[in-house]
Amino acid sequence: MSLPTNSVPAGDIRDRLIIGLDVPSVEEARALVERIGDAGTFYKIGYQLAYAGGFEFARELIGQGKKVFLDLKLHDIGNTVEEGVRSVARLGATFLTVHAYPQTMRAAVAGKAGTGLKILAVTVLTSYDDNDLVEAGYAPVPTAELVARRAEQARDLGVDGIVCAATEAQAVRGIVGRNCLIVTPGIRPPGSEAGDQKRIVTPAEGIRLGANHLVVARPIVKAADPRAAAEAIVRDIADA
């Protein structure tokens, strides 16, 4: 059986690696970006950095020609989400995450209308497994089934992409088609610790399973040589 073909256009292979700036301060983030140099072109800013001056740092990165993924996982009443997305679009970010609830996704699509911002819907967090869903009250829905249901809704609402575990990327690709982005966290190079991720694969496996972009944080951020770590992952992506 052949694996699904994803829809990434020809371009800079480095853009397929999104480096997670999971550090507590702008100073540390800036130093990390400088150490990585031109090995990194695309950076993710999540809660930890966003609320420590990360929004201004996002503008700084964009001004340097870098791409920025704001991983904010918005989820609120429709009007609040729509206006928040509109503000992020003015910032110049490339990607923004929202939780994959229909009302939230619908509002996010409205908020980014006419801009270059791409909305990514988070299906089920990669730190969750079936037991976590049971604890959250989703029983008896298995993780894979909930991911599939939310991917279908995202597709129908015109969301630009899906965030899911790479272990689910092949199935999601079959649901959303070739023109929808698939972004996968939970990527660990061979020999790396899983940390709090429960559904993980290697960079090469993630690409072969149909992911467009891979999000990698700790294996790069905590590496003795972050640039070398990023370059190694980009080589894996290219080989895949």
TrEMBL record:
Its EC top class is lyase
Entry EC number(s): 4.1.1.23
Q: Which domain of life is it from?
A: Bacteria
Q: Which reaction does it catalyse?
A: orotidine 5'-phosphate + H(+) = UMP + CO2
* Family note: Belongs to the OMP decarboxylase family. Type 1 subfamily.
Q: Describe its assembly.
A: Homodimer.
HAMAP family named in the record: OMPdecase_type1_B
This one is known as Orotidine 5'-phosphate decarboxylase
Q: Which organism is it from?
A: Microvirga arabica
